[in-house]
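Changelog-adjacent note: as of this version, every example in the card shows the full chain rather than a window. The one below runs 101 residues end to end.
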Amino acid sequence: MVSRSENLKEILEIEDEINKLEINLNYRTIKENLKKLEKGYFGLFISVPSPNNLKETIKIKRNSPQLENTIKLYKEKIEDYQNRIYKLKIKRKDLKNALFQ
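Full-length structure tokens:
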């Protein structure tokens, strides 16, 4: 049986990991650029970091297949981060429930 102090410690570790994921520079960069691309408020071309390598910039033409593909790749990356955050939140909730029973 796990003690209350061990549960509390694990809850705090999970919360720390959730915060690290939510403020992660790559996550924020992907999220911001996805918003830009989905809104479409840009000229004929837009320069954004490549979804595969955020250090590399790509130039995308409005309404092109490359734009659609880039949006799809950004969404997949966002889903990965969000799934990890969601799983951690569920684990935290289960630990909190076990703590207060």
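Structural remarks: The radius of gyration is 19 Å.
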